[in-house]
Amino acid sequence: MRRHRVVITGLGVVSSIGIGVRAFCEALRTGKSGITEITSFDTRGFPFRRGGEIRGFDPQHWIRRLDPTSIGKTSQLAIAASRLALDDARIDPADAEGSRCGVSVGTTDGETLLIERFNEDWVRHGLDGFRGRYMAEAPAGRISVNVARDLGLEGEVNTFATACAAGNYAIGHAYDLVSTGEAPFMLCGGADSLSRKTFAGFFRLNAVAPLVCQPFDRNRQGLLTGEGAGMLLLERRECALLRRARVYAEILGYGLSCDGVHMTSPDRDSIVTAMQRAIHQAGLRPADVSYVCAHGTGTRLNDLTEAAAIHQVFAGSPPPVSSVKSMIGHTMGAASAIAASACALAIYEGFLPPTINSVEPDPECALDCVPNRARDAEVNVAQNNAFAFGGNNAILMLGREEWAARRL
Amino acid sequence: MGGPSALSPPRRVAVTGCGVVSPIGIGREEFARAFLEGKAGLRPVAGDYSPPLPCARAGQVVDFDATRWLGKKGTRFLDRSTTLAVTAAGLALKDGGLAVEEANSPRVGVVLGTAMGSLKSISDFGRETLLYERPFLVNPMLFPNTVLNSAAGQVAIWLKLRGVNTTVSNGQLSGLTAVSYAGRAIALEYADAILAGGVEELSAQLVWGAHHAGNREFLESAREEDVYPGEGASILLLEELQAARDRARPVIAELLGCESGFYGRTRGGGVTAQAQGLAAWLNRLMRARDVAPEEVGALSASCGPEAADSVESLAMDIVFGDRRPARLDVKSLIGECYSAAGAFQCTALLAYLGRPGCAQRYGLVTSAGKDGAVACALFKRGD
User: Fold this and answer.
1) What is the CATH number of domain A6-242?
2) ipTM greater than cut 0.95
3) Contact: B123, A126; criterion CB under 8 Å
C-alpha cells in the first residue's frame, strides 16, 4: 500500500522544565532539572519524596469550552498541550473546529487522581456513602475525548493504555491514519499526572531514586516519577508544504514488539526486535541513525538492558544516546511523547539534548550519553525508544525532512 | 518481516477463531447456541458484597474457575480480568487452530480494549497505600495488575505471543476499536495474526463507580433505574486472509472495514449529530465494499432496544429506512459488559451470520458512546 509522507508541524509540551515548545527547547539546551519535592500528594511515610512535578500550570488559561473543574488533571494537561501544538503549527483553532482532525493520546494511569479520590472516599465513607459524580471522568478514554470536545474536533478519537510506551504507540497510530489517508491531520502524544499509587508501586519495586535521576551513570539509583503532556500535530507532507508550515521533522515509521516473558523486567531480544522493525519499516539502516533518545529510566536493569540492545542493533558503534528523563523524571505515558518532541527539536534545531546528573558514566553501558551539556550536532535521523510494563516496546523513527526527501 | 510495499494490494483480514467467556457460556459454540436461543444470562447477584451492589441482577460468569483453564501454577497474583482474558485468548487460538511457535511468535499479537483496566486491582492497591502507616508496604506482586495493559501483557506471556501488543482504552468503544486497530495492523503488515477483543471484570468498585458516575459515561447504555452490569471476555483471532487459506482453516468471516468518528463537541442534544455521523460512516463502509443495504442481514448494536431514540436506532433509520436488517441485542442477555461489549457484539454477529439458513452474508457492528464517539465494522461471512 502506498503511503503519504507524514510530518510534524506543531509541538505542544507541558513539562516540569517548561510549558510551551520554546521554554522546553531552551530547558533541553541548558540541561535544566524539573525535579523538586512533591507537593501534589501526601508523601508522609515515604522516605523519598522527589519527583518531576509541574508548577504554575493554570488550567483556566488553556481550557476554553469545557469547565476545567469538571474534568481530570490528565485531560487538562493534554488539552493544554494540544492547544499549544495547534498554535505552534499556526493553525487557527476556529479552522480546526468541526474538522476531521483526530486525537490519539497515550497514558499509563489515565485520570489516576480521580481514582485516588474514589479510594479516599471509599476508605472514609464506604462505597455507598459519598457523591462520586467525578467517576464519570475516571475512564482513561476521557483524555482523548476531552481534547476533542474542548477543541471541537470530529476525527477518530483513541486513547492508548500501553503504560510507559503509550506515547509512541499513540504517535505511531496517528502516523498510520495520516499516511494511509484516513485522517487529514492528527493531534497525538501522551499525558499523565503524578500519582501516589505509581510512586508507591515503583518505590516498592526498589526502583525510585532518593534525589536525582542519573541514567547510564555508574551510581544511578533509580527513576523519579514525573508528570506532563506532549502533543504533536501531524499532517501530510504535501499539505504542510502547501500551507508553508514549518516542518520540524518527518515521521519515518515505527516498530512494536512484546516481550511475552515478564510483566516488569525488560527483555533485550524483544527490544532489539522492536528497534530493527522500526529501522526497517522506516527504510533505514542502523548506520543512518544520528541520535537515540533513550527510554533511559535510570534504573540499573533498564539502562543495562537498553544499552545491550543498542549495542547489538548498532553492531558495537552506537550513535549518541541521551535520556530526557534525567531532567523531568519518568512522565509515564507522556514520556515517549515528550521525548519525541525533544527528537523533533534535536532534528530541527541541530543539537543533542543532554543526560544531566552525569557523574561517572557506567562502563557497562558504554554509551556516549551526552553528559550534562547539550551538544550541537546535525541530526538526520532520531530514534525514540520506549519500553513498558507488560513487555510493550515501541520505537519511533523521526527524520530531517530535507534529508528524507533527498533519500528518495 | 517486511515493510508495506508500494506495489502490493492491501492485505485482507479474516476471522478464524473466537474465544468467549460469558455469562451465557464459555467457548464459541456454547456462546453461539445460547445467544441464538436467547438464553438469559442476567441473574440475581451472586456473592456477598458489602454494601450490596446497587443493582438487583447482573451478568456474572458464575462458574468460572481460572485454575481449571489455566492450571494452578502462576495464577495466584492474576486478577479476574486477566484470567478471563487469558482464558478467552487461549480458546480463540485453539478455535482457530493456530499453533504459535518460536518462528511465528514475533508475528502474532494481542490487542485488547479496556476502559479502566481492572478497577478492582487499581483501587485495592491504591487503598492499601492509604491504610498502612508506611504507605509503600503494598504488595509489589500486585503492582503490575494496576496498569491498564496488564491483561494484554499476561496474554502475551501465557500464550507466548511476541508480536504487536496494544491496549486501547476508549470507554464503551474499547472492544470494537481493539478489533479495528488489529485489522489495520494486519493490513499494514505489522503482524500476521492478532487476538483482538475486550475484557471486563465485574467488581463492587466498578458497579459503584458507575453508579456514582450516574451510569452516564461508563456502563453507559444501562439505565439508571435498572443497571445490569455484565462481565466476560470476547476475543477474535484475526489473520491475514491468504495465510488462513494457505493453512486450510475455515474462515468464519472477513473483516471488510472499520470506521470511527467523534460527534461530542456539543454537549447534550448531540444524539442527532452522532446518529448522522454514524450513518455516514455505515454508508461509507458499505459503499467502499459495494455492499447494498439489503445485503446486510444484521446490525449488532451497543444499546439496548428500549432506547428507541438512541443513536443507533436513528442511524439505522437513516441508512436502511423501513428495510431494516435484524437488530442483534446481546446486551439484554449478558448485561453491559462495557470494555468487552463491542467484542461480544462481534461474536454475536458472527454467530447470527453463521447460523443455518442465514440468507445474508454481511453484517454490521456499531458502538456509540455517551461521549459522542461512534465506531462501526463490516463483516462478511466466510465461505
Assistant:
1) 3.40.47.10
2) yes
3) no
